[in-house]
């Protein structure tokens, strides 16, 4: 046979074999890529064709021996694993990588692409403290996240569930940092918490700290002096101690904030304060 024809036939057959080999490749679907220690995850090994009666085999990365074997049902095998089964002796905070294949009679598929699940661990909560309860956008407040471990040097700070800063566990944050992404307003409450991560190479984070509430007051949002009353629930009021605070704007207008006792959550009312003293009866004007 002509050498060039032989090479062409070999290339053609090799290409066809490669296509067949790839088409038999299964895939994996994870119910979650992250779980907490004590939770479970579902890993599904899907087959490109219905090989009912065959077996799916789940491997930890680089292992030649299956970690779990399951019977195929239609196009999929399902593996339900607890966090401890998932870790298999690895420390909490590890990311565990898997592949799977399937076998029917004498046929064994190629393995899937690698996929992984992280098992997060938790540490005791830190304690959060703030130097002041009221701040303007340009002013700073000192926030201190105190972990129960001496080895922690970096902390993460959150407004509600939004991450706003990380770095030293005691630091200054401006009012603008506290309300980033918020629409400018006269009065914005901020619910601040913090966490710490005790290990550099393991996915372990602390439980959230205690919540500290403070207010960012932007006098530039008003054209005349205002008196604002904010009614808080009892547990929130403890932080402020029924404080009163006044901030002055560049044009001479002032905003006076009075935090009062009440049974409702944040309920804000502001009144114009032209020549009236704080507490005098004025028409209510709700500020959005």
Q: Which series of helices and strands comes N to C?
A: HEEEEEEHEEEEEEEEEHEEEEHEEEE
The average pLDDT is 81
Structural class label: mainly beta
Radius of gyration: 30 Å
| Record field, number of beta strands | 23
Task: Please tally the helical runs, counting DSSP H or I stretches of 4 or more residues.
Answer: 4
The percent range for helix content is 10-25%
Head-to-tail CA distance between termini:
87 Å
User: Approximately how much beta-strand content do the residues carry?
Assistant: 35-45%
- Indicate the overall shape: elongated
Low-confidence stretches: 1-23, 274-288
User: For this entry, what is the oligomeric state of its chains?
Assistant: single chain
Largest sheet: 7 strands, mixed
Strand and helix map with partners:
Blueprint: H1 3-23, E1 27-30, E2 34-36, E3 40-46, E4 55-60, E5 68-71, E6 76-82, H2 83-87, E7 95-104, E8 107-108, E9 115-123, E10 127-130, E11 134-135, E12 140-146, E13 155-159, E14 162-167, E15 170-174, H3 175-178, E16 187-196, E17 204-206, E18 212-217, E19 226-232, H4 234-240, E20 244-248, E21 254-261, E22 267-272, E23 284-285
Parallel strand pairs: 2-9, 9-17, 11-18, 19-21
Antiparallel strand pairs: 1-3, 3-6, 4-5, 4-7, 7-8, 7-9, 10-12, 12-15, 13-14, 13-16, 16-18, 19-22, 20-21, 22-23
